[in-house]
Amino acid sequence: MSVLFAVLLAATAAAQNPMYGANAPPAASTETVTASTAAVSASTSTAPTDETAGRGFKVGGDAPKPKLARPLHAVIHKDAVDWEPLGLRVGGVPGAAENAAALKVVKVKGRMKGENSKARSVARLHKGKKDSVWLVISLYPKSLERRRTHFELRFRVFEGFVEDVEAAAVTVTDRRRQKSDRLLDSWDLRDQAIEYESERPGSGQFVVAELDPRPGSSARNSGRLEKAEFAHKDLGFVNLSWSVRGLKALGK
User: Fold this and answer.
1) Cα–Cα distance for residue pair 126/248, rounded to 1 Å
2) Strand partners, 210
3) Residue 61 CB coordination number (10 Å)
4) Residue 79: is it exposed, middle or buried by C-beta count within 10 angstroms (0-12/13-18/19+)?
5) Rg from Cα positions in the chain
6) DSSP secondary-structure letter at 178?
7) Using CA atoms, how far apart are residues 137 and 187, in angstroms rounded to an integer?
8) How many other CB atoms are there within 10 angstroms of residue 34's CB atom?
9) Residue pLDDT, tens place only, 194-211
10) Which residues of 182-210 are buried (b: 16+ CB within 10 A; e: fewer)?
11) Residue 86's closest CA among 18, 172, 17, 155?
């Protein structure tokens, strides 16, 4: 009887003990998992993101490069890039161009190739209509000397704005005219009654890095004419570049 009484007494004590029964805490293994999960959650919420860790932000080396200063002493309209047949835009590095011509340019295996030639150049100012002036860059490729052909890149300036552009291949046809070291443009040829022919391209794009229609030795003009399409078989697609120092005044 004493043994049975002892067993019943122990069972009653266990039922009344708050460490057991419905109010008992979870098992040790469950408590460990819960604590581990809470720790991971806290760690995730306080971990530095890419931004706070310094990633995702621009560093000093990624700062925008300063805009290239191009000496332009005439305003180019924004819509000039879409002019027909020749567009006009600002681009290139001042002073980096050379006087050169590439004739009959074609694409070969993804690359543009043509007949390259060095050239001489001169810049002159001529009077236009309604108080405008024409800034004319004449380019004389060595490869076209026998044909007596040169190129003219023309910019009509009115009240400080470029209002029109032209390009032409000018060929002297007057056989009475002897070769001369003086570089004549079409205005000079007309003044001297020298016969010539002129052909204009059907398309192309002017890109200017320096533009100065003000006469004087300090004037700087440089740029290029890209993909100018001429009908003559000796020309074809033409790329031209020029860099001229100095500008002769009107009538000189």
Assistant:
1) 9
2) 222
3) 5
4) exposed
5) 41
6) P
7) 12
8) 11
9) 999 999 999 999 999 999
10) eebbbbebeeeeeebeeeebeebbbbbbb
11) 155
Residue 182 pLDDT level (bands cut at 50, 70, 90): confident
Q: What is the pLDDT of residues 207-231, one digit of tens each?
A: 999 999 999 999 999 999 999 999 9
- 137-155: per-residue pLDDT in tens? 999 999 999 999 999 999 9
For 114, the token pair is: 């043509």
- Looking at residue 49, its pLDDT comes to 40
Residue 23 has pLDDT above 60, yes or no: no
**Rounded-to-integer distance, Cα 166 and Cα 99, Å:** 18
The better pLDDT of the pair 179, 231 is held by: 231
Cα–Cα distance between 206 and 166 in angstroms, integer? 9
Exposed / middle / buried, residue 132 (Cβ in 10 Å: 0-12, 13-18, 19+): middle
The CA distance from 75 to 166, in Å, is 17
Note whether 221 and 137 are within 8 A (CB).
yes
